[in-house]
Every structure is written in C-alpha cells, then in structure tokens.
Amino acid sequence: MNLRRVLALSVLAWTSTQYAAEASPEAVVRELSVALLSRDADRILAIFDREHGGYAYTLRGDLTTGPAFEAWLRRDIIARGRVFVIDRLQVVGNRVEVEATYGIGKPSIFRRYIFEVVDGKVAGWFIGY
Questions:
Q1: pTM of the entire structure?
Q2: pLDDT > 70? residue 119
Q3: Count of domains observed in the chain
Q4: What number is the average pLDDT over the span 3-8?
Q5: φ/ψ (deg, to 5) at 96
Q6: Are the C-beta atoms of residues 125 and 113 closer than 8 Å to each other?
Q7: Helices (DSSP H) in 1-129: which residue ranges?
Q8: Is residue 66 part of a domain?
Q9: Domain holding 99: CATH number?
C-alpha cells in the first residue's frame, strides 16, 4: 500500500473517530432515528457502543447487555424494521429523553425513550419509561 493511501485512510479513520467523540447527544439520537428509517444495519450498529457492552431496558423490564444486546439489536430492531420518528426531544447531560412515534416499518405507536450517550455513541437505551 502506498504512503498516500495510508495517509488518506488514517485521516478518514481519525475524522470518523473525532466526529463520534464530538457529536452531541442530540445529534447521535437524531442520527439513530434516520438510520432506523433508512434500514441501514451497519449505520445503526455503528451508533451503539458495542465495544463496551451497550445495554437496553425493555418494556418488560428486561436488561439486555453485551453480546445479547447486539443480538437483540439485530433480531428485534433491525431485522423487524423498527423505526421511530422523534416528536419531542430533551437533552439532560449525556441523556436524551425522547417522545416518539414508533412502529414496525411505519410509525404508529407513541413511546418514550431515554438514550444514554457516551463519547458519541449510544451506550444505553431505556424503552418505554
């Protein structure tokens, strides 16, 4: 690989990492909403902090973490085409409180979420609080 290509790839990697670290919690959650609507699995997964585990509390009060969290994202969110459209959003520190219209393929149900954003990634997702 030539030096020019190595430098270009290094700049791209740094830019992506820098964007993630500098992205506001609001921007991260809005990006997740757009990624879900576009059904872009890679983009959706990239928004979550899977390296440090990630977690979700579901409506039933179940806690999902680690490899089970990624499996849940793939099975219950991405594969089923779940989407949400943000109706109202409020940022409190690194938490984003969202009121949204939610559904499979087409948003139709009101839901509340809290997303915990750390270093430009969604670290936690509280569903239906």
A1: 0.77
A2: yes
A3: 1
A4: 38
A5: -120, 115
A6: yes
A7: 3-22, 25-38, 41-47, 66-72
A8: yes
A9: 3.10.450.50
Between vectors from CA 56 to CA 77 and to CA 104, what angle results, nearest 5°?
Answer: 20
Q: Is residue 8 part of a domain?
A: no
Give SS3 for 111.
strand
pLDDT of 123: 92
Q: What is the mean pLDDT of the chain?
A: 82
Q: What is the pLDDT of residues 48-98, one digit of tens each?
A: 987 766 788 877 788 888 888 888 888 988 999 988 899 999 999 999 999
Phi, psi (deg, nearest 5) at residue 104: -100, 110
Residue range of the domain that includes 92: 24-127
6 occurs within a structural domain: no
Q: Give Cα separations from 108 to 75, 100, 111 (angstroms).
A: 20, 9, 10
Instruction: Beginning with the edge strand found earlier in the chain, give each strand of the sheet holding 55-57 in spatial order.
Output: 63-65, 55-57, 121-127, 109-118, 95-104, 82-92
Place of tokens 């959003």: 89
